[in-house]
Amino acid sequence: MGSKTARERVATGEAWEEFCERLKDAGKLILRPGTPMNELDRAEGLRYLSRLTRMALEVCFENSDPDFPTLLNIPNATAKAGADNPDNLYFTAPVAGDREYRLTGTRGTVRWLSFGTKAFLAGADGQPVSTPTGSLDGRDLLVAPDGSFEIAVSLEPRPGNWLPLQPRSNVLVVRQTFLDRHRETAAEVTIERVTAAGKPTPLSAKRAQWALQSAVHVATRIARRYVEWAQWYQRFPNTLRTIEGSPLREEGADPNIGYLYGYWSIGADEALVVETPVPECEVWNFQINNYWMESLDYRYHRISLNKGSARYNRDGSVTVIVAASDPGSGNFLDTAGHRCGTMVWRWTRAQHHPVPICRVVKLASLRGIRAVPDEESTVPAGDNR
User: Fold this and answer.
1) pTM of the full structure
2) Reduced to 3 states, what is the DSSP secondary structure of residue 266?
3) d(Cα 123, Cα 367) in Å, to the nearest integer?
4) Tens-place pLDDT, residues 115-158
5) How far is 347 from 285, CA to CA, in rounded Å?
6) In what order do the strands lie in the sheet with 257-265?
7) Nearest one of 298, 305, 310 to 376, comparing CA atoms
8) Is residue 171 within 8 Å of 101, Cβ to Cβ?
9) Could you give all domains of the chain from N- to C-terminal order, each with its CATH number?
């Protein structure tokens, strides 16, 4: 960048040109050796990069000020990353460890609600490392008779609902998990900084240049991280593996959730059969993703199952069929035109975390076989399976 100031670089367009050049380099990530060469995966790779860029620009330009935070809904149905959960509603906001915030809202009826603070920092390899710095479980939330609540977010403990911060905290996360989006009501949450005064300062050249540089950096490193993860799991096709010894071990995931990730790959005439016992747990779900670790389009295809939507075998176990067409045998997930991708199983507050067994069979062998009898096809609403 030489000795030119941000004002000069913005005025001459150099800041934008640098952003475009660096973004151009990010396109090489979807061309890495070993990534799928077919039309669908390549096209989705381009869309994936555009989505990451859109998300990064939204965060860096519009929602990066810890003095005036807002809760931004990402990932969502058209902006995805990192095996986003179709059952989840995600919100994030920028925070700073030396400030204090207030969350207010209504509880709703969503099955799982959690609040957390995190420190997103660069690891030794330059990739982001997410470290939890505080949490508040929805089960412990004090709620008024009218369903409203208030949460203090601060370094020092506060009476009532308190979400801890640490000096290095820089992100606040609200996560909601549904069993049935059509029947449950989402929690409504807003955030404000306590004792904040005035209004945000007008956008400066320095801030605009920072936002462009940060956005392309964020988009590139996220794309690189998940491509590397997909390629790691690609070495173990059609299996689900615990995160121990995997690239996910430093992700800083919710400690209440046991994760199993994998890579699936089947032919047009094949199906992936996934079978597992189901432990007593709060929530569980299984989903399939594309190669880039985006959930498949759950708006139009059934690509995930959870504790409430699954059909259970007589012994309480679950059998899932992943295929290009429905064999009519129970828990079918639609590959939506894909031949490969990633997958994830989550056990939330489970007494133990069984590892599902996966096998590839000919799709024709499943035609007409009913895996689950109608009279025992679902778990009663009060069952804590």
Assistant:
1) 0.90
2) coil
3) 49
4) 999 998 765 555 567 789 999 999 999 999 999 999 999 999 99
5) 7
6) 239-242, 257-265, 340-348, 283-288, 304-306
7) 310
8) no
9) 6-193 (no CATH), 234-376 (2.60.120.600)
